[in-house]
Design a protein that fits this description.
Elements (H helix, E strand, L loop, with lengths): L2 H11 L22 E7 L11 E2 L2 E5 L5 E5 L2 E5 L2 E8 L4 E3 L2 H7 L3 H16 L3 E4 L5 E4 L13 H8 L6 E7 L2 E6 L3 H16 L10 E5 L2 E6 L4
Antiparallel strand pairs: 1-6, 2-5, 3-4, 5-6, 6-7, 8-9, 9-11, 10-11, 10-12, 12-13
């Protein structure tokens, strides 16, 4: 891929500077398997009722000089109004992985997401549940802007489901906000509805999803559809 296209991929993916310094001297991203991460982003107007990993398709991105290029990215429709972006992490910015990268690393989408979650745990810590408010719990790691990526940590949610057989209801209103409540706790679920809507509405630059999601039987589905 041409060098200027890498810039477009980084721009399309969005900068992330919450916890590190920029790459010294403009060094290239590390595009090895050990540096692969996954982030969740909004797909405005979408509502996938169940989990999927369908390719997002060709994107058009504008370069700093105003010209446009078509890009093949490793972005995948997921559930509700969210899609998954496979990215490489410089600790200062994220650069989208390309289908060629997955081919080079011999990864299909499912195994790439699983590897990305394992890398997230290794680099930024295992997810931790902390009391939030009104009976809700917050999921956090060591990088605020990647808290939402723990939505993809199936082992974490399975461990919670083992304690709450009715499942867990979760909200991902912004990149740094991942909240949940037991599905059979009506008061907590009502508080989650209110809180998620308020956070989503106030987070125009970092919002992820306006829906609520149910984790049950090891999988995610839409519990409350996204706002229209």
């Amino acid at each position: 891929m041409k060098a200027r296209h890498w810039a477009a991929l980084a721009i399309a993916c969005g900068a992330w500077t919450a916890h590190a310094q920029p790459i010294a001297g403009g060094d290239p991203f590390d595009t090895q398997a050990s540096n692969l991460m996954a982030v969740l982003r909004e797909s405005a107007g979408a509502n996938e009722p169940q989990e999927t990993l369908q390719p997002y398709g060709t994107l058009r991105a504008q370069l700093p000089d105003g010209s446009e290029v078509e890009l093949e990215t490793s972005w995948f429709r997921f559930v509700g109004d969210m899609h998954i972006r496979l990215v490489f992490d410089s600790r200062a910015q994220l650069q989208s992985a390309s289908p060629d990268d997955l081919d080079r690393l011999r990864l299909d989408p499912l195994h790439a997401v699983q590897l990305a979650v394992a890398n997230l745990r290794r680099v930024y810590g295992e997810p931790v549940s902390k009391p939030w408010s009104a009976g809700l719990m917050q999921v956090v790691g060591r990088a605020d802007d990647l808290n939402s990526s723990y939505f993809l940590d199936r082992a974490f949610w399975q461990s919670l489901e083992s304690q709450h057989p009715a499942g867990m209801v979760a909200a991902v209103p912004q990149r740094g906000g991942l909240l949940y409540a037991p599905a059979d706790d009506d008061d907590a679920v009502a508080a989650l509805r209110f809180s998620a809507t308020a956070i989503y509405a106030s987070s125009s630059r970092s919002r992820v999803s306006s829906a609520l999601y149910l984790f049950h039987d090891g999988h995610w589905s839409v519990f409350q559809p996204p706002l229209r």
